[in-house]
Amino acid sequence: MAGGVLSSVIQAIDKLAAHIRQLSGSSSLEPCSVEDLDKLKKTLLRIQDSVQDSEREIGDASTKVWLSELEVSAYDIENILMESQFLGYGAEQRTRMDAPSKRKRDQVCNSVKAPLPDDVAHKIMEIRRRVDEAATEWAAIHLTQSDGRRWLESTGGHLLSGFQIDESFVYGREDDKENVIKLVLSDDCKRDEVSVIPIVGMAGVGKTTLAQLVYNDSRICEHFTTRGWVHVSQNFDVTRLTRAILESITGKPCDSNELIELQGTLMEVLSGKRLLLVLDDVWNEKESTWACLMSPFSSAEMSKVVVTTRFVKVAKIMQTVVPYQLHNLTEDKCWQLFHRFAFDGQDPNEHPNLIEIGKKIAAKCHGWPLAAKTLGGQLRFETDEESWKDILEGDLSELVGENQ
């Protein structure tokens, strides 16, 4: 399935590149457009080789989304081709109408080359950007499949549980993991109280990753009889979140939209249990809303809630212990992380020139894990030194993009 989608995109690129090369009316546009298309094809061929080597099932949600985005790129390329061909047909028809004789019309029409639309170069560059992102995403998907199975329990359309992750893909978080585990396992809450441990840090610093490490640790699994994981984000609707928490810890769908009913059921489920709940990416700043969400947890024997958030103010509203501040990686750990994503499955000694450039790129990330993974993933299929230098010289915020 993935191979077929990739093949259709590559075929569309070949057709459009051939069409552009035939046109003479846009010589200023042709070189950059064809060059972008050639680079597009090169990237896709590398992904295709990786897909063919992978035995990953295409049935999971992340890969389906990835494939659908590639299909959109194929349609966009075909649309550019059809638009250009349509303009060429129109120019030919107008020339036939203006020529005085059939012989003259045929001679003129054979030489007619309709110019490409002015926005074609921009469209091609935008498609190339999307395909570069697809390459990064496939690298992450493929790495996860090869070296640590990622799993989701999904019922009712909610993200319910933490990911199983391979710790070999996490660098520089050993001490952070142990520190948070100590906080979670500490005997600091009474039967009718909820202990809340906030993990605070900038976007992309690894808060969710740290929470995953804690959530899946064997000591945590043995200590807590019930666990749950809910991604919150900006929509802090108590009814929705209560239902998602209930679905997460029971593994069963829940259709109720009545808060009182949901809270009553949750209290019954938690009665006498030792609960660990992770609420990932919380933005809520209303203390009353938070108190309402936490009210059913009093029925549990023990309730520990790990919260990840970017905002100190949010953490202070919820905290029962001092928020755990997660900092950037050291330069050495950041380089190790970048190296893993950029060279995984390859022999870096085959390209010693890229090692030096890569170290400079990693230093430019200033210990930001998201940047190291994103840029390393972008370059994983790339052996052209100039492409690495482009990343090195580019603006970091633009290269990484808008991040949650």
Automatic annotation (TrEMBL):
Biological processes per GO annotation: defense response
GO molecular function: ADP binding; ATP binding
Keywords: ATP-binding, Leucine-rich repeat, Nucleotide-binding, Plant defense, Repeat
Domain NB-ARC stretches: 175-346
Gene3D superfamilies on file: 1.20.5.4130, Helical domain of apoptotic protease-activating factors, P-loop containing nucleotide triphosphate hydrolases
Ranges for domain Disease resistance N-terminal: 6-83
InterPro entries per UniProt: Apaf_helical (IPR042197), NB-ARC (IPR002182), P-loop_NTPase (IPR027417), Rx_N (IPR041118)
Pfam families, sorted: NB-ARC, Rx_N
Family membership: Belongs to the disease resistance NB-LRR family.
Protein name: Disease resistance protein RGA3
Organism annotation: Phoenix dactylifera
